[in-house]
Amino acid sequence: TGVIYQRLLKSSNGGRRAAFEVLVANDAVRNLIREGKTHHIPNAMITGSGVGMRTMEASIQELAAKAEITKEEAARFLRQNV
């Protein structure tokens, strides 16, 4: 069980590239939700990368590092979501 969120960003070649956020409902995440500590979920996603979790920020940074999106496009999105 989990949640996947997708955001389309302008690619370097004029098309679109998808950035993904992936949250897996493992025991740690379920416990955080049960205890009302949802503000800790982003940290759980970072430490849970071994089971396939990833934050949107990490996905966007990876796309920018591979030059699949421009650094300006990455910065524009990351500024919007501060």
Can you characterise this structure?
This protein is an alpha+beta fold. Helices cover about 45% and strands about 20% of the residues. The protein contains four helices and two strands; from the N terminus they run E-E-H-H-H-H. The protein has a two-stranded antiparallel ribbon. Strand 1 (about 1-10) and strand 2 (about 15-25) form a beta hairpin. Helix 3 runs antiparallel to helix 4 (about 70-80).
Tell the overall outline.
elongated
How would you name the oligomeric state of the polypeptide chains in this document? single chain
SS class: alpha+beta
Helical residue percent band:
40-55%
Mean pLDDT: 92
Order of helices and strands: EEHHHH
Radius of gyration: 14 Å
Number of E-type strands? 2
The largest β sheet comes out as: 2 strands, antiparallel
Strand order of the largest sheet: 1-2
- Taking the alpha carbons of the first and last residues, their distance comes to 27 Å
Total helical elements? 4
Low-pLDDT runs of 5+ residues are none
